[in-house]
Amino acid sequence: MGIGHTRWATHGKPTELNAHPHSSMNAHVVHNGIIENYGELKKEFSENKFLSQTDTEVMVHLFDKFFEETKDSFQAFEKVIESVDGAYAILLITEKDDGKIFFAKKGSPLQIGTEKGEVFFASSDAPLIGLASEAIYLEDNTYGYVTIDEIKVFENGQETTFVKKALATSKFTAQKEGFTFFMEKEIYEQTNVLNDTILGRVDSEKVLFDEIDDDFFVGIEDITICACGTSYHAGLTASYLFGRLAKVKTTVEIASEFRYKDPVLRQNELFVVISQSGETADTLEALKMAKKAGLKTLAICNVDNSSIVRESDATLLTRAGIEKGVASTKAFSAQVTVLWLLALYVGQVKNRISLEDLKKEIKAIGKIKDVTKVDENLRNRIHRLSKRYLHGHGFFFIGRDLFFPLALEGALKLKEISYLHAEGYPSGEMKHGPIALVDSELFTIALMPETLLYDKTRSNVEELSARDSTICAITPTDFDLADDLIKTAKTNHPMLEFFEMMIVVQILSMEISIRLGNDVDMPRNLAKSVTVE
Protein backbone atom coordinates (compact mmCIF):
# COMPACT_ATOMS: atom_id res chain seq x y z
CA MET A 1 0.00 0.00 0.00
CA GLY A 2 1.33 3.43 -0.84
CA ILE A 3 0.49 6.94 -2.05
CA GLY A 4 2.41 9.15 -4.47
CA HIS A 5 2.02 12.35 -6.42
CA THR A 6 3.70 13.66 -9.57
CA ARG A 7 2.56 17.29 -9.70
CA TRP A 8 4.63 20.33 -8.73
CA ALA A 9 4.16 22.31 -5.54
CA THR A 10 1.38 24.90 -5.83
CA HIS A 11 2.85 26.80 -2.88
CA GLY A 12 6.62 27.15 -2.62
CA LYS A 13 9.31 26.25 -5.11
CA PRO A 14 9.40 22.79 -6.77
CA THR A 15 11.96 21.38 -4.32
CA GLU A 16 12.28 18.02 -2.61
CA LEU A 17 11.07 19.47 0.71
CA ASN A 18 7.95 20.80 -1.00
CA ALA A 19 7.29 17.54 -2.85
CA HIS A 20 4.56 15.13 -1.78
CA PRO A 21 3.88 13.12 0.34
CA HIS A 22 3.95 15.38 3.40
CA SER A 23 4.25 13.68 6.75
CA SER A 24 3.68 14.17 10.46
CA MET A 25 3.93 11.97 13.52
CA ASN A 26 0.88 9.90 12.52
CA ALA A 27 0.00 10.62 8.89
CA HIS A 28 1.19 10.99 5.29
CA VAL A 29 -0.78 12.92 2.68
CA VAL A 30 -0.79 13.73 -1.04
CA HIS A 31 -2.98 16.51 -2.35
CA ASN A 32 -3.92 18.11 -5.65
CA GLY A 33 -5.58 21.50 -5.36
CA ILE A 34 -5.28 24.54 -3.10
CA ILE A 35 -6.14 24.84 0.61
CA GLU A 36 -7.21 28.48 0.68
CA ASN A 37 -7.26 28.88 4.46
CA TYR A 38 -3.94 27.15 5.15
CA GLY A 39 -2.35 30.36 6.47
CA GLU A 40 -5.02 30.71 9.12
CA LEU A 41 -4.82 27.01 10.03
CA LYS A 42 -1.02 27.13 10.39
CA LYS A 43 -1.35 29.65 13.20
CA GLU A 44 -2.69 26.84 15.42
CA PHE A 45 0.75 25.19 15.39
CA SER A 46 4.30 26.27 16.12
CA GLU A 47 6.33 27.16 13.03
CA ASN A 48 8.96 24.51 13.76
CA LYS A 49 6.40 21.80 13.02
CA PHE A 50 6.48 22.66 9.30
CA LEU A 51 9.21 21.42 6.97
CA SER A 52 7.73 22.73 3.71
CA GLN A 53 6.30 25.94 2.26
CA THR A 54 3.18 24.16 1.03
CA ASP A 55 -0.47 24.51 1.90
CA THR A 56 -0.74 20.71 1.96
CA GLU A 57 1.38 20.04 5.04
CA VAL A 58 -1.11 21.67 7.38
CA MET A 59 -3.47 18.70 6.86
CA VAL A 60 -1.21 16.10 8.47
CA HIS A 61 -0.74 18.28 11.55
CA LEU A 62 -4.49 18.80 11.74
CA PHE A 63 -4.91 15.03 11.55
CA ASP A 64 -2.54 14.55 14.51
CA LYS A 65 -4.46 17.12 16.53
CA PHE A 66 -7.87 15.60 15.81
CA PHE A 67 -6.65 12.04 16.36
CA GLU A 68 -5.49 13.02 19.84
CA GLU A 69 -9.01 14.32 20.48
CA THR A 70 -11.03 11.47 18.96
CA LYS A 71 -8.71 8.44 19.06
CA ASP A 72 -10.44 7.45 15.80
CA SER A 73 -8.63 7.88 12.49
CA PHE A 74 -11.75 8.22 10.32
CA GLN A 75 -13.32 10.81 12.62
CA ALA A 76 -10.02 12.68 12.63
CA PHE A 77 -9.95 12.64 8.81
CA GLU A 78 -13.55 13.91 8.67
CA LYS A 79 -12.58 16.81 10.94
CA VAL A 80 -9.64 17.63 8.67
CA ILE A 81 -12.01 17.83 5.68
CA GLU A 82 -14.43 20.01 7.64
CA SER A 83 -11.58 22.38 8.56
CA VAL A 84 -10.09 23.07 5.12
CA ASP A 85 -11.47 25.39 2.45
CA GLY A 86 -10.62 25.27 -1.23
CA ALA A 87 -10.31 22.67 -3.96
CA TYR A 88 -8.71 19.33 -3.29
CA ALA A 89 -8.23 15.69 -4.09
CA ILE A 90 -6.64 14.15 -0.99
CA LEU A 91 -5.21 10.76 -0.09
CA LEU A 92 -4.08 10.11 3.48
CA ILE A 93 -2.59 7.08 5.18
CA THR A 94 -1.84 6.64 8.86
CA GLU A 95 0.01 4.12 11.00
CA LYS A 96 -2.98 4.34 13.38
CA ASP A 97 -5.18 2.54 10.87
CA ASP A 98 -2.93 0.34 8.77
CA GLY A 99 -4.45 -1.09 5.60
CA LYS A 100 -6.69 1.91 4.81
CA ILE A 101 -6.32 4.82 2.41
CA PHE A 102 -8.55 7.77 3.25
CA PHE A 103 -9.69 10.00 0.38
CA ALA A 104 -11.67 13.20 -0.22
CA LYS A 105 -12.70 15.13 -3.32
CA LYS A 106 -13.86 18.70 -3.84
CA GLY A 107 -13.24 20.59 -7.07
CA SER A 108 -10.22 18.55 -8.17
CA PRO A 109 -10.50 15.26 -10.10
CA LEU A 110 -10.26 11.96 -8.26
CA GLN A 111 -11.37 8.51 -9.28
CA ILE A 112 -10.89 4.98 -8.01
CA GLY A 113 -9.84 2.14 -10.30
CA THR A 114 -10.56 -1.44 -9.24
CA GLU A 115 -9.19 -4.80 -10.28
CA LYS A 116 -9.38 -8.11 -8.44
CA GLY A 117 -7.18 -7.76 -5.37
CA GLU A 118 -6.11 -4.20 -6.23
CA VAL A 119 -7.40 -0.63 -5.82
CA PHE A 120 -5.92 2.45 -7.51
CA PHE A 121 -6.44 6.20 -7.26
CA ALA A 122 -5.86 8.60 -10.16
CA SER A 123 -6.99 11.95 -11.53
CA SER A 124 -8.03 10.58 -14.94
CA ASP A 125 -8.61 7.37 -16.90
CA ALA A 126 -5.24 7.40 -18.68
CA PRO A 127 -2.98 6.08 -15.88
CA LEU A 128 -5.56 3.45 -14.90
CA ILE A 129 -5.84 1.84 -18.32
CA GLY A 130 -4.07 -1.50 -18.27
CA LEU A 131 -4.18 -1.66 -14.46
CA ALA A 132 -7.90 -1.54 -13.63
CA SER A 133 -10.98 -2.82 -15.42
CA GLU A 134 -13.53 -0.58 -13.66
CA ALA A 135 -13.60 2.94 -12.25
CA ILE A 136 -15.62 4.90 -9.70
CA TYR A 137 -15.96 8.57 -10.66
CA LEU A 138 -16.27 10.42 -7.36
CA GLU A 139 -18.59 13.40 -6.99
CA ASP A 140 -17.63 16.65 -5.29
CA ASN A 141 -17.87 16.74 -1.47
CA THR A 142 -17.52 12.98 -1.15
CA TYR A 143 -14.90 11.28 0.98
CA GLY A 144 -14.26 7.89 2.52
CA TYR A 145 -11.73 5.09 2.71
CA VAL A 146 -10.67 1.94 0.91
CA THR A 147 -9.17 -1.31 2.06
CA ILE A 148 -8.22 -4.23 -0.14
CA ASP A 149 -11.68 -5.70 0.50
CA GLU A 150 -14.06 -2.72 0.60
CA ILE A 151 -14.71 0.82 -0.60
CA LYS A 152 -16.73 3.19 1.57
CA VAL A 153 -17.96 6.54 0.22
CA PHE A 154 -19.59 9.21 2.39
CA GLU A 155 -21.31 12.55 1.86
CA ASN A 156 -22.47 14.89 4.64
CA GLY A 157 -21.61 12.28 7.24
CA GLN A 158 -23.76 9.57 5.64
CA GLU A 159 -22.61 6.58 3.65
CA THR A 160 -23.64 6.87 0.00
CA THR A 161 -23.81 4.58 -3.00
CA PHE A 162 -21.48 4.61 -5.99
CA VAL A 163 -21.44 3.10 -9.46
CA LYS A 164 -18.54 1.28 -11.11
CA LYS A 165 -18.08 1.87 -14.83
CA ALA A 166 -16.01 -0.19 -17.25
CA LEU A 167 -12.60 1.15 -18.27
CA ALA A 168 -10.87 0.58 -21.59
CA THR A 169 -8.60 -2.44 -21.25
CA SER A 170 -5.89 -1.56 -23.80
CA LYS A 171 -3.02 0.81 -23.20
CA PHE A 172 -2.03 0.66 -26.88
CA THR A 173 -2.79 4.34 -27.54
CA ALA A 174 -0.59 5.36 -24.60
CA GLN A 175 2.57 3.90 -26.18
CA LYS A 176 5.03 5.74 -28.45
CA GLU A 177 4.81 3.06 -31.15
CA GLY A 178 8.29 3.74 -32.53
CA PHE A 179 8.17 7.53 -32.36
CA THR A 180 10.71 9.42 -30.28
CA PHE A 181 8.10 11.58 -28.55
CA PHE A 182 4.41 11.26 -27.75
CA MET A 183 3.85 14.70 -29.28
CA GLU A 184 5.42 13.49 -32.54
CA LYS A 185 3.21 10.40 -32.55
CA GLU A 186 0.11 12.48 -31.81
CA ILE A 187 0.85 14.89 -34.67
CA TYR A 188 1.15 11.96 -37.08
CA GLU A 189 -1.99 10.18 -35.89
CA GLN A 190 -4.26 13.20 -36.39
CA THR A 191 -5.33 11.96 -39.81
CA ASN A 192 -6.82 8.81 -38.21
CA VAL A 193 -8.11 10.59 -35.12
CA LEU A 194 -10.08 13.12 -37.15
CA ASN A 195 -11.56 10.31 -39.22
CA ASP A 196 -12.85 8.83 -35.95
CA THR A 197 -14.14 12.25 -34.86
CA ILE A 198 -16.17 12.58 -38.06
CA LEU A 199 -17.33 8.95 -38.22
CA GLY A 200 -21.13 8.63 -38.16
CA ARG A 201 -21.63 12.39 -37.91
CA VAL A 202 -21.98 13.26 -41.60
CA ASP A 203 -23.57 11.92 -44.73
CA SER A 204 -23.50 13.56 -48.16
CA GLU A 205 -26.19 16.12 -47.34
CA LYS A 206 -26.51 16.28 -43.57
CA VAL A 207 -24.66 16.59 -40.27
CA LEU A 208 -25.82 14.16 -37.58
CA PHE A 209 -25.35 14.32 -33.82
CA ASP A 210 -27.06 11.47 -32.00
CA GLU A 211 -25.92 13.02 -28.71
CA ILE A 212 -28.16 16.08 -29.18
CA ASP A 213 -31.96 16.03 -29.02
CA ASP A 214 -33.78 17.34 -32.11
CA ASP A 215 -35.12 20.33 -30.17
CA PHE A 216 -31.85 21.16 -28.38
CA PHE A 217 -31.37 24.46 -30.25
CA VAL A 218 -34.97 25.62 -30.06
CA GLY A 219 -35.00 29.09 -28.50
CA ILE A 220 -31.22 29.47 -28.76
CA GLU A 221 -30.21 32.74 -30.45
CA ASP A 222 -26.65 33.31 -29.22
CA ILE A 223 -23.74 31.10 -28.20
CA THR A 224 -21.15 31.72 -25.50
CA ILE A 225 -18.03 29.55 -25.64
CA CYS A 226 -15.88 29.30 -22.52
CA ALA A 227 -12.48 27.58 -22.35
CA CYS A 228 -8.80 27.92 -21.45
CA GLY A 229 -5.52 27.71 -23.38
CA THR A 230 -5.60 25.58 -26.53
CA SER A 231 -9.33 24.92 -26.05
CA TYR A 232 -9.89 28.69 -26.01
CA HIS A 233 -8.16 28.91 -29.41
CA ALA A 234 -10.48 26.18 -30.73
CA GLY A 235 -13.40 28.25 -29.43
CA LEU A 236 -12.13 31.38 -31.19
CA THR A 237 -11.91 29.41 -34.43
CA ALA A 238 -15.50 28.27 -33.89
CA SER A 239 -16.72 31.86 -33.47
CA TYR A 240 -15.83 32.54 -37.11
CA LEU A 241 -17.51 29.30 -38.21
CA PHE A 242 -20.73 29.86 -36.27
CA GLY A 243 -21.04 33.39 -37.64
CA ARG A 244 -20.30 32.39 -41.21
CA LEU A 245 -22.12 29.06 -41.47
CA ALA A 246 -24.94 29.30 -38.92
CA LYS A 247 -25.43 33.09 -38.72
CA VAL A 248 -25.32 32.88 -34.92
CA LYS A 249 -23.67 35.56 -32.81
CA THR A 250 -20.91 33.85 -30.80
CA THR A 251 -18.91 35.20 -27.87
CA VAL A 252 -15.74 33.47 -26.69
CA GLU A 253 -14.59 33.84 -23.07
CA ILE A 254 -11.44 32.83 -21.20
CA ALA A 255 -12.83 30.80 -18.31
CA SER A 256 -10.54 32.24 -15.63
CA GLU A 257 -11.69 35.77 -16.58
CA PHE A 258 -15.34 34.88 -17.10
CA ARG A 259 -15.71 33.56 -13.56
CA TYR A 260 -14.99 36.90 -11.94
CA LYS A 261 -16.43 39.49 -14.34
CA ASP A 262 -20.05 39.30 -13.13
CA PRO A 263 -21.16 38.18 -16.61
CA VAL A 264 -24.55 38.91 -18.13
CA LEU A 265 -26.20 35.56 -18.90
CA ARG A 266 -29.41 35.34 -20.89
CA GLN A 267 -31.79 32.44 -21.25
CA ASN A 268 -31.65 32.42 -25.06
CA GLU A 269 -27.94 31.65 -25.21
CA LEU A 270 -26.26 28.27 -25.27
CA PHE A 271 -23.25 27.95 -22.99
CA VAL A 272 -20.55 25.78 -24.60
CA VAL A 273 -17.50 24.65 -22.63
CA ILE A 274 -14.44 23.07 -24.24
CA SER A 275 -11.91 20.99 -22.31
CA GLN A 276 -9.50 18.23 -23.26
CA SER A 277 -9.55 16.54 -19.85
CA GLY A 278 -13.01 17.53 -18.68
CA GLU A 279 -11.44 18.51 -15.36
CA THR A 280 -10.16 22.04 -16.15
CA ALA A 281 -10.93 23.87 -12.91
CA ASP A 282 -11.80 27.33 -14.25
CA THR A 283 -13.91 25.92 -17.09
CA LEU A 284 -15.78 23.61 -14.71
CA GLU A 285 -16.60 26.49 -12.36
CA ALA A 286 -17.77 28.66 -15.28
CA LEU A 287 -20.03 25.80 -16.36
CA LYS A 288 -21.52 25.61 -12.87
CA MET A 289 -22.22 29.36 -12.99
CA ALA A 290 -24.06 28.97 -16.30
CA LYS A 291 -26.07 26.04 -14.97
CA LYS A 292 -27.01 28.00 -11.87
CA ALA A 293 -28.20 30.85 -14.09
CA GLY A 294 -30.48 28.41 -15.93
CA LEU A 295 -28.64 28.31 -19.26
CA LYS A 296 -28.64 25.28 -21.51
CA THR A 297 -25.12 23.82 -21.58
CA LEU A 298 -23.05 21.76 -24.00
CA ALA A 299 -19.58 20.27 -23.46
CA ILE A 300 -16.96 19.51 -26.11
CA CYS A 301 -14.62 17.09 -24.38
CA ASN A 302 -12.19 14.23 -24.93
CA VAL A 303 -12.90 12.28 -21.73
CA ASP A 304 -16.22 10.58 -21.08
CA ASN A 305 -17.34 10.47 -17.43
CA SER A 306 -15.20 13.53 -16.59
CA SER A 307 -16.56 16.25 -14.29
CA ILE A 308 -17.47 18.64 -17.11
CA VAL A 309 -19.23 15.88 -19.06
CA ARG A 310 -21.26 14.86 -16.01
CA GLU A 311 -22.21 18.48 -15.29
CA SER A 312 -23.34 19.46 -18.83
CA ASP A 313 -26.79 19.01 -20.34
CA ALA A 314 -25.26 17.43 -23.45
CA THR A 315 -21.79 16.40 -24.59
CA LEU A 316 -20.02 15.95 -27.91
CA LEU A 317 -16.97 13.75 -27.42
CA THR A 318 -13.98 14.52 -29.62
CA ARG A 319 -12.79 10.87 -29.77
CA ALA A 320 -9.13 11.92 -29.86
CA GLY A 321 -7.97 9.06 -27.65
CA ILE A 322 -5.30 9.40 -24.98
CA GLU A 323 -3.08 12.44 -25.51
CA LYS A 324 0.13 12.13 -23.50
CA GLY A 325 2.09 15.14 -24.76
CA VAL A 326 1.46 18.15 -22.54
CA ALA A 327 1.36 20.48 -25.56
CA SER A 328 -1.93 19.56 -27.20
CA THR A 329 -2.04 18.61 -30.86
CA LYS A 330 -4.66 16.02 -31.76
CA ALA A 331 -7.07 17.18 -29.04
CA PHE A 332 -7.03 20.68 -30.58
CA SER A 333 -7.66 19.45 -34.12
CA ALA A 334 -10.46 17.17 -32.91
CA GLN A 335 -12.08 20.07 -31.02
CA VAL A 336 -11.97 22.28 -34.12
CA THR A 337 -13.45 19.47 -36.22
CA VAL A 338 -16.35 18.91 -33.81
CA LEU A 339 -17.00 22.67 -33.68
CA TRP A 340 -16.98 22.90 -37.48
CA LEU A 341 -19.53 20.09 -37.61
CA LEU A 342 -21.58 21.77 -34.89
CA ALA A 343 -21.64 25.08 -36.77
CA LEU A 344 -23.02 23.24 -39.80
CA TYR A 345 -25.51 21.37 -37.62
CA VAL A 346 -26.82 24.63 -36.13
CA GLY A 347 -27.07 26.21 -39.58
CA GLN A 348 -28.91 23.13 -40.75
CA VAL A 349 -31.48 22.91 -37.91
CA LYS A 350 -32.11 26.66 -38.03
CA ASN A 351 -32.33 26.71 -41.86
CA ARG A 352 -29.56 29.29 -42.12
CA ILE A 353 -27.34 27.44 -44.59
CA SER A 354 -28.32 26.39 -48.08
CA LEU A 355 -28.19 22.75 -49.10
CA GLU A 356 -25.62 23.64 -51.77
CA ASP A 357 -23.30 25.29 -49.23
CA LEU A 358 -23.83 22.47 -46.74
CA LYS A 359 -22.79 19.91 -49.37
CA LYS A 360 -19.63 21.94 -50.10
CA GLU A 361 -18.70 22.02 -46.44
CA ILE A 362 -19.33 18.29 -46.00
CA LYS A 363 -17.20 17.57 -49.06
CA ALA A 364 -14.38 19.63 -47.51
CA ILE A 365 -14.75 17.78 -44.20
CA GLY A 366 -14.22 14.53 -46.09
CA LYS A 367 -10.77 15.77 -47.17
CA ILE A 368 -9.45 16.52 -43.66
CA LYS A 369 -7.77 13.12 -43.48
CA ASP A 370 -5.74 13.97 -46.59
CA VAL A 371 -4.47 17.42 -45.52
CA THR A 372 -3.56 16.26 -42.00
CA LYS A 373 -1.39 13.38 -43.21
CA VAL A 374 2.23 14.32 -42.51
CA ASP A 375 4.31 14.60 -45.68
CA GLU A 376 7.84 13.38 -44.92
CA ASN A 377 9.38 15.81 -47.42
CA LEU A 378 7.63 18.66 -45.61
CA ARG A 379 8.79 17.32 -42.24
CA ASN A 380 12.38 17.14 -43.47
CA ARG A 381 12.22 20.70 -44.84
CA ILE A 382 10.93 22.04 -41.53
CA HIS A 383 13.67 20.13 -39.72
CA ARG A 384 16.36 21.73 -41.90
CA LEU A 385 15.09 25.30 -41.61
CA SER A 386 14.34 25.07 -37.86
CA LYS A 387 18.02 25.71 -37.06
CA ARG A 388 17.53 29.35 -38.11
CA TYR A 389 14.99 29.89 -35.33
CA LEU A 390 16.85 28.89 -32.17
CA HIS A 391 17.94 32.40 -31.16
CA GLY A 392 16.62 35.92 -31.47
CA HIS A 393 14.32 37.93 -29.27
CA GLY A 394 10.94 36.53 -30.21
CA PHE A 395 8.36 35.35 -32.70
CA PHE A 396 5.26 36.90 -34.23
CA PHE A 397 2.73 34.35 -35.48
CA ILE A 398 0.28 36.29 -37.65
CA GLY A 399 -2.90 35.44 -39.52
CA ARG A 400 -6.30 36.85 -40.43
CA ASP A 401 -9.83 35.59 -39.83
CA LEU A 402 -9.75 31.84 -39.03
CA PHE A 403 -5.97 31.97 -39.10
CA PHE A 404 -5.70 34.44 -36.21
CA PRO A 405 -6.71 31.74 -33.66
CA LEU A 406 -4.29 29.39 -35.42
CA ALA A 407 -1.56 32.03 -35.00
CA LEU A 408 -2.36 32.14 -31.29
CA GLU A 409 -2.19 28.36 -31.11
CA GLY A 410 1.09 28.22 -33.04
CA ALA A 411 2.65 30.77 -30.68
CA LEU A 412 1.38 28.84 -27.65
CA LYS A 413 2.86 25.57 -28.94
CA LEU A 414 6.25 27.20 -29.41
CA LYS A 415 6.16 28.86 -25.98
CA GLU A 416 5.16 25.65 -24.25
CA ILE A 417 7.92 23.39 -25.50
CA SER A 418 10.77 25.66 -26.66
CA TYR A 419 10.59 28.32 -23.89
CA LEU A 420 11.10 31.00 -26.57
CA HIS A 421 8.94 34.10 -26.47
CA ALA A 422 6.19 34.04 -29.08
CA GLU A 423 3.04 36.07 -29.66
CA GLY A 424 0.04 35.46 -31.88
CA TYR A 425 -1.52 38.51 -33.55
CA PRO A 426 -4.09 39.36 -36.19
CA SER A 427 -2.03 40.42 -39.21
CA GLY A 428 -3.70 43.82 -39.38
CA GLU A 429 -2.71 44.64 -35.78
CA MET A 430 1.01 44.85 -36.56
CA LYS A 431 0.97 48.57 -37.32
CA HIS A 432 -1.01 49.28 -34.12
CA GLY A 433 2.06 48.88 -31.92
CA PRO A 434 3.82 45.51 -32.24
CA ILE A 435 5.74 46.50 -35.38
CA ALA A 436 7.94 48.66 -33.12
CA LEU A 437 9.66 45.45 -32.00
CA VAL A 438 10.63 44.36 -35.50
CA ASP A 439 14.24 43.83 -36.57
CA SER A 440 16.22 40.97 -38.11
CA GLU A 441 16.16 39.02 -34.82
CA LEU A 442 12.36 39.13 -34.66
CA PHE A 443 10.96 36.10 -36.50
CA THR A 444 7.58 36.32 -38.25
CA ILE A 445 5.67 33.09 -38.90
CA ALA A 446 3.13 34.25 -41.46
CA LEU A 447 0.00 32.18 -42.14
CA MET A 448 -0.92 33.18 -45.70
CA PRO A 449 -3.85 31.08 -46.97
CA GLU A 450 -4.70 31.54 -50.62
CA THR A 451 -8.45 31.08 -50.07
CA LEU A 452 -8.96 33.75 -47.41
CA LEU A 453 -7.78 37.39 -47.44
CA TYR A 454 -4.46 36.53 -49.07
CA ASP A 455 -3.75 40.02 -50.48
CA LYS A 456 -4.48 41.70 -47.15
CA THR A 457 -2.16 39.34 -45.28
CA ARG A 458 0.53 39.68 -47.93
CA SER A 459 0.46 43.45 -47.52
CA ASN A 460 0.98 43.12 -43.76
CA VAL A 461 3.89 40.70 -44.24
CA GLU A 462 5.50 43.07 -46.75
CA GLU A 463 5.46 45.80 -44.08
CA LEU A 464 7.29 43.50 -41.66
CA SER A 465 9.80 42.44 -44.31
CA ALA A 466 10.55 46.10 -45.14
CA ARG A 467 11.52 46.56 -41.50
CA ASP A 468 13.93 43.59 -41.60
CA SER A 469 11.87 40.94 -39.80
CA THR A 470 12.96 37.42 -40.71
CA ILE A 471 9.94 35.98 -42.53
CA CYS A 472 8.86 32.35 -42.56
CA ALA A 473 5.83 32.23 -44.86
CA ILE A 474 3.45 29.27 -44.72
CA THR A 475 1.45 29.46 -47.94
CA PRO A 476 0.57 27.57 -51.12
CA THR A 477 1.85 30.46 -53.29
CA ASP A 478 5.31 31.72 -54.14
CA PHE A 479 6.36 34.68 -52.01
CA ASP A 480 9.64 36.36 -52.96
CA LEU A 481 10.06 38.27 -49.70
CA ALA A 482 10.10 35.16 -47.53
CA ASP A 483 13.42 34.20 -45.96
CA ASP A 484 11.95 30.72 -45.57
CA LEU A 485 8.98 29.40 -47.51
CA ILE A 486 6.97 26.37 -46.32
CA LYS A 487 4.70 25.51 -49.20
CA THR A 488 1.33 23.97 -48.47
CA ALA A 489 -0.97 22.31 -50.99
CA LYS A 490 -3.38 24.32 -53.08
CA THR A 491 -6.99 23.73 -52.07
CA ASN A 492 -10.38 25.33 -52.49
CA HIS A 493 -11.44 25.65 -48.84
CA PRO A 494 -10.03 27.78 -45.98
CA MET A 495 -10.53 25.05 -43.37
CA LEU A 496 -8.42 22.61 -45.38
CA GLU A 497 -5.67 25.23 -45.46
CA PHE A 498 -6.25 25.73 -41.72
CA PHE A 499 -5.64 22.07 -40.93
CA GLU A 500 -2.55 21.76 -43.13
CA MET A 501 -1.02 24.92 -41.65
CA MET A 502 -1.86 23.59 -38.19
CA ILE A 503 0.31 20.53 -38.92
CA VAL A 504 3.12 22.83 -40.07
CA VAL A 505 3.17 25.01 -36.94
CA GLN A 506 2.98 21.93 -34.70
CA ILE A 507 5.98 20.32 -36.43
CA LEU A 508 7.92 23.60 -36.50
CA SER A 509 7.50 24.06 -32.75
CA MET A 510 8.52 20.46 -32.11
CA GLU A 511 11.62 20.64 -34.34
CA ILE A 512 12.81 23.85 -32.68
CA SER A 513 12.29 22.30 -29.25
CA ILE A 514 14.18 19.14 -30.23
CA ARG A 515 17.13 21.19 -31.51
CA LEU A 516 17.20 23.08 -28.21
CA GLY A 517 17.41 19.77 -26.31
CA ASN A 518 14.15 20.22 -24.40
CA ASP A 519 11.79 17.54 -23.11
CA VAL A 520 9.13 17.85 -25.81
CA ASP A 521 6.50 15.79 -23.98
CA MET A 522 7.00 17.16 -20.46
CA PRO A 523 7.81 20.89 -20.66
CA ARG A 524 8.82 22.61 -17.45
CA ASN A 525 6.22 24.10 -15.10
CA LEU A 526 3.29 22.63 -17.06
CA ALA A 527 0.80 19.82 -16.45
CA LYS A 528 -1.48 18.02 -18.88
CA SER A 529 -4.63 18.85 -16.96
CA VAL A 530 -4.94 22.16 -15.11
CA THR A 531 -7.10 21.15 -12.19
CA VAL A 532 -6.42 24.10 -9.90
CA GLU A 533 -7.14 27.80 -10.33
Task: Characterize the structure shown.
The strands form four sheets. Strands 1-2-3-4-8-9-10 form a seven-stranded antiparallel sheet. The model has no long low-confidence stretch (mean pLDDT 93). It is an alpha/beta fold. It has three domains: 22-166, 4-Layer Sandwich (Glutamine Phosphoribosylpyrophosphate, subunit 1, domain 1), CATH 3.60.20.10; 174-373, 3-Layer(aba) Sandwich (Rossmann fold), CATH 3.40.50.10490; 374-518, Rossmann fold, CATH 3.40.50.10490. The protein is globular. It has helices spanning 38-42, 58-70, 73-83, 182-188, 190-198, 229-246, 255-258, 281-292, 307-311, 330-349, 355-365, 368-371, 376-385, 403-418, 454-466, 494-515, and strands at 22-23, 27-35, 86-94, 101-106, 111-115, 118-122, 134-137, 142-146, 151-155, 158-160, 164-166, 222-227, 249-254, 269-275, 296-301, 314-317, 394-399, 422-426, 442-447, 470-475, 484-487.
